[in-house]
């Protein structure tokens, strides 16, 4: 987590005297953390809320199931019908929401930390725009010109999104590469590429007929509609593979915050550390975008919200992931149920829910925070 | 373009240099030389802009030779070329000119006030404020005229921007770069989401929105340009008056305050200028955001960190880029055309990336 760079202490007796004022430290074998009770509390409350909202989300629908029964089914009980509805029909959708939200928020927290820019999201390496171009071309070309038919188009969209995201990320990195990666240059090249691809996306929207444009709009705002286990698995796998390196790499985030030169001066190997973090962020955001579309606002706002809730100096990773999952699932619940028969894409609701909260936190301004 | 790639070592502290008490004659000479180079560069950009204007009038589905353009501008006799030039090409070129200047200047102000290289003129919620009111007007009130879109868009842009400024200013300390940027991003996302709701509910609004969204300067009524012109002029004057204050703010708020600048006033004026410039442009042309993002970076690469130079360079470069992109859009898809918003990104991004790779970066 976000500790100060640990100093080698000559003897245990000195180590006991070295304390961060007001913050108890946890020491386990060779590692040590600053214990932040507030962060812990936010994470625990967030997790509890997440389980509750998930249970409510799974329960609501044409065949309502109470929260208690949902939890029973998840623990292995319940009738056959309930098991089928919960485990096969509704759980995958909620799980996709949880994983996608967590992945996007984590990716956002990492990119905001390494670029030291509160506006930076995985967009800065063109993830969203690359995925959007690829997916919208499949939707528009597949729909209006009949080049791809039904089932093929359905598989094609996520796969195209994934390829688009990673292809763009690689291209941006190579274009910004000049004897190593400087984050300022990366940001500029990335945002330019983002605009280029976004313009192409909007141009594609004007090509097809209006129904295809509508389908593309739904994809572009991010949707969890009809997501099954086949969407859960890749995202879960990506999280399993990518979260550990991200958390290991995050050890240096505190040092990177002082700028590249200072970080280098206090002994951080900046280029490999940042490359590791960037690769994890790109992977997380790319897979999440492919699974649910670019669910807007999560990657941008959640790290900032988490930072203000925990009162830390930079976005906390794990809390961001928990809150990202919470926001996405809550938004999905509202998107499904709050508007009667009509179902909105989840990305619409994430922003409608998240933006006022971020505004409120900004207005309260606990203290000056400069990311 | 060689002419204005001049300043070999744009110093980040360039903003402060003119204010310091220079005593040595060498420094004075160096400063004079730098000023001369900057003026020459400005003249070169201006010349380029004139060329872009001429191209914009001459090139299109119907090619018009330059002597006929001249003829149409100064002694029209009602020939076919005269009609095309005076009723179609000229208004479009003028709109491109003012829109480019407005967006370039607004982008430079925006990046300066938020001190964020990712800021574009739409960051204060202007773009999506306009988008939301336009689609809302179509959905709820059945607005169908272009005039309706323009004024709905303008009002939306103003409201969103004022909202962001208030939101970024509450709490102690007034508006800071970070709160402004975040409040703007939050507002933009909120309005984008609401726009998406309306567009998904109403396919007629979607049909207008998807064409509005790409941004274009073609087919706009000349009267419309005249109507928004006062807002643009006022915005431009306020923006230029804002430049010395921006230089002080670039040193940090505390330093600026101790130098005797009224930080709150400077910020407020800057935001007002951005709102007027961007709001009016977005209302007429749709969101052409890319220009305001890229052009200030290019200007900074050329002249360093002095806003008194960045702002004019940004304006002129913005207009040049916009017009050239518009011409390119007419050439590539002849006899039809690609909207300028798309062409801008296609033309501008490779140029920008080459620029960013080759030059030493000037940080905000």
From TrEMBL, chain A:
One of its GO terms (cellular component) is plasma membrane. GO terms for molecular function: transmembrane transporter activity. GO terms for biological process: siderophore-iron import into cell. InterPro entries: ABC_BtuC-like, ABC_transptr_permease_BtuC. It is a multi-pass membrane protein. The chain crosses the membrane at residues 37-58, 94-112, 124-143, 155-177, 184-205, 235-254, 275-305, 342-363. Pfam families: FecCD (PF01032). It comes from the Bacteria. Signal peptide: none annotated. Keywords: Cell membrane, Membrane, Transmembrane, Transmembrane helix, Transport. SUPFAM superfamilies: ABC transporter involved in vitamin B12 uptake, BtuC. It is found in: Cell membrane. PANTHER family: FERRIC ENTEROBACTIN TRANSPORT SYSTEM PERMEASE PROTEIN, FERRIC ENTEROBACTIN TRANSPORT SYSTEM PERMEASE PROTEIN FEPG. Belongs to the binding-protein-dependent transport system permease family. FecCD subfamily. This is Iron ABC transporter.
TrEMBL record, chain B:
GO terms for molecular function: transmembrane transporter activity. It holds the Pfam family FecCD. It is a multi-pass membrane protein. Keywords: Cell membrane, Membrane, Transmembrane, Transmembrane helix, Transport. It comes from the Bacteria. It is found in: Cell membrane. GO terms for cellular component: plasma membrane. The chain crosses the membrane at residues 39-61, 93-110, 122-142, 148-168, 180-201, 228-250, 271-295, 307-325, 337-356. One of its GO terms (biological process) is siderophore-iron import into cell. Residues 1-21 are annotated as: Disordered. InterPro entries: ABC_BtuC-like, ABC_transptr_permease_BtuC. Gene3D superfamilies: ABC transporter involved in vitamin B12 uptake, BtuC. Its main location: membrane. Belongs to the binding-protein-dependent transport system permease family. FecCD subfamily. This is Iron ABC transporter permease. It comes from Longimycelium tulufanense.
């Amino acid at each position: 987590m976000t500790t100060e760079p640990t100093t080698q202490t000559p003897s245990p007796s000195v180590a006991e005297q070295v304390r961060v004022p007001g913050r108890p430290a946890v020491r386990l074998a060779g590692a040590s953390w600053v214990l932040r009770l507030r962060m812990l509390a936010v994470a625990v409350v967030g997790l509890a809320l997440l389980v509750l909202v998930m249970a409510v989300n799974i329960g609501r629908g044409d065949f309502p199931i109470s929260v208690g029964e949902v939890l029973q089914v998840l623990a292995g009980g319940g009738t056959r019908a309930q098991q089928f509805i919960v485990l096969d029909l509704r759980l995958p959708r909620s799980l996709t929401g949880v994983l996608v939200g967590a992945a996007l928020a984590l990716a956002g927290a990492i990119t905001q930390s390494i670029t030291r820019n509160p506006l930076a999201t995985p967009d800065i390496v063109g993830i969203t725009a690359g995925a959007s171009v690829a997916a919208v071309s499949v939707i528009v070309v597949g729909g209006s010109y009949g080049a791809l038919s039904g089932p093929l188009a359905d598989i094609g969209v996520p796969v195209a999104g994934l390829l688009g995201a990673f292809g763009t990320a690689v291209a941006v990195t190579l274009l910004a590469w000049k004897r190593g990666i400087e984050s300022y240059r990366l940001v500029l090249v990335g945002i330019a590429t983002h605009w280029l691809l976004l313009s192409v996306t909007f141009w594609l929207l004007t090509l097809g007929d209006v129904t295809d444009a509508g389908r593309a709009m739904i994809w572009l705002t991010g949707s969890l509609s009809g997501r099954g286990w086949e969407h859960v698995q890749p995202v879960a796998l990506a999280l399993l593979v990518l979260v550990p390196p991200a958390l290991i790499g995050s050890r240096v985030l505190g040092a990177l915050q002082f700028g590249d030169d200072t970080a280098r001066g206090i002994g951080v190997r900046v280029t490999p550390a940042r490359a590791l973090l960037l690769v994890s962020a790109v992977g997380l955001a790319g897979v999440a975008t492919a699974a649910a579309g670019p669910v807007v606002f999560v990657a941008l706002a959640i790290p900032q919200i988490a930072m203000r809730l925990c009162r830390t100096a930079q976005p906390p990773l794990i809390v961001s992931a928990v809150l990202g999952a919470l926001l996405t699932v809550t938004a999905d619940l509202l998107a499904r149920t709050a508007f009667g028969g009509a179902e909105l894409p989840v990305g619409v609701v994430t922003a409608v829910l998240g933006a006022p909260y971020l505004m409120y936190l900004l207005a309260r301004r606990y203290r000056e925070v400069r990311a | 373009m060689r002419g204005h790639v001049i300043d070999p070592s744009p110093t980040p502290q360039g903003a402060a240099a003119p204010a310091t008490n220079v005593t040595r004659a060498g420094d004075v000479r160096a400063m004079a030389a730098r000023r001369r180079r900057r003026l020459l560069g400005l003249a070169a950009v201006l010349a380029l802009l004139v060329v872009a204007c001429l191209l914009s009038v001459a090139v299109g589905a119907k090619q018009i030779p330059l002597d006929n353009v001249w003829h149409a501008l100064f002694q029209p006799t009602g020939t076919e070329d005269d009609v095309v030039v005076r009723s179609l090409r000229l208004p479009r070129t003028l709109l491109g000119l003012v829109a480019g200047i407005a967006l370039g200047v607004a982008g430079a102000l925006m990046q300066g006030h938020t001190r964020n290289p990712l800021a574009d003129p739409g960051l204060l919620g202007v773009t999506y404020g306009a988008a939301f009111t336009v689609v809302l007007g179509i959905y709820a009130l059945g607005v169908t005229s272009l005039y309706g879109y323009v004024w709905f868009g303008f009002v939306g842009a103003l409201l969103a921007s004022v909202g962001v400024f208030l939101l970024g200013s509450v709490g102690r300390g007034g508006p800071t770069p970070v709160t402004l940027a975040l409040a703007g991003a939050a507002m933009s996302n909120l309005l984008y989401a609401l726009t998406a709701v309306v567009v998904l509910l109403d396919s007629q609004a979607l049909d207008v929105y998807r064409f509005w969204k790409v941004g274009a300067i073609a087919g706009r009524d000349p009267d419309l340009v005249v109507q928004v012109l006062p807002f643009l002029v006022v915005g431009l004057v306020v923006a230029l008056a804002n430049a010395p204050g921006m230089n002080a703010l670039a040193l940090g708020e505390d330093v600026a305050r101790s130098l005797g600048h009224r930080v709150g006033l400077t910020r407020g004026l800057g935001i007002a200028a951005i709102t007027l410039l961007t709001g009016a442009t977005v209302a007429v042309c749709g969101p052409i955001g890319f220009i305001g993002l890229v052009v200030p970076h290019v200007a900074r690469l050329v002249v360093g960190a002095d806003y008194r130079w960045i702002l004019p360079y940004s304006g002129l470069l913005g207009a040049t880029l916009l017009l050239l992109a518009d011409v390119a859009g007419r050439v590539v898809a002849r006899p039809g055309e690609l909207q300028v918003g798309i062409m801008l990104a296609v033309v501008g991004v490779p140029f920008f990336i080459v620029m960013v790779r080759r030059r030493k970066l000037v940080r905000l």
